[in-house]
Amino acid sequence: MTSAAAPAAVRQEAQTERGGTMILLVEDNADNQEIYRIILSHHGHTVIQAWDGAAGVRMAREHLPDLILMDLTMPVIDGLEATRMLKADPVTAAIPIIALTAHAMQEDLEAAEAAGCVAYLSKPAEPRRVAEEVGRVLAMSPRTRRTA
Ligand code: MN
């Protein structure tokens, strides 16, 4: 006797669990890209990557990730400008953005907040801290609260 396919509701729940959360990592430093990709993947997130601000904006519009980690100092378009562009676009405005900054001076943090970042991590950021902060921000986000 063969068992019937799982009921639709059960299948859908399993898909939701597998799907997880998509994080866009925008960072021009290859070492940071690799370290953060590994820790975020380990925590069950799907990670997509961009190496400059312009590519970050394009990928955010194309993939509509659940959260963006945005380095502030990058070529082509820096992280502040990329954040302003995403916040000005109704399609991407609701995506929470965490700033990654090597200069955690008060004025930098204020600039990140003014651009629309919801939180920041000062570099070098311990991978465990990055994963914790991503989890905290996802839990606050109306877009992802169900998966938090
Ligand atoms: Mn950088």
Walk me through the structure.
It is built from 6 helices and 5 strands; from the N terminus they run H-E-H-E-H-E-H-E-H-E-H. It has helices at about 10-20, 30-40, 55-65, 80-90, 105-115, 125-140, and strands at about 20-25, 45-50, 65-70, 95-100, 120. A 5-stranded parallel β-sheet has the order 2-1-3-4-5, sandwiched between helices. Strand 4 (about 95-100), helix 5 (about 105-115) and strand 5 form a beta-alpha-beta unit. The chain is globular and about 30 Å long. The site of manganese (II) ion has 5 residues, from loops.
Rounded mean pLDDT is 87
SSE class: alpha/beta
Q: Which kinds of small molecule does this entry bind, naming each only once?
A: manganese (II) ion
CATH-assigned homologous superfamily? Response regulator
> In which range does the helix fraction lie?
40-55%
CA radius of gyration: 17 Å
**Order of helices and strands, N to C?**
HEHEHEHEHEH
Largest sheet descriptor: 5 strands, parallel
Shape: globular
Supply the number of structural domains: 1
- In the predicted model, the low-confidence regions spanning at least 5 consecutive residues are 1-18
In the CATH hierarchy, what is the class?
A: Alpha Beta
* Second rung of CATH, namely the architecture: 3-Layer(aba) Sandwich
CATH topology: Rossmann fold
Strand tally is 5
Task: Count up the helices.
Answer: 6
- How do the strands of the widest beta sheet line up side by side? 2-1-3-4-5
Q: State the end-to-end CA separation.
A: 39 Å
Strand portion: 15-25%
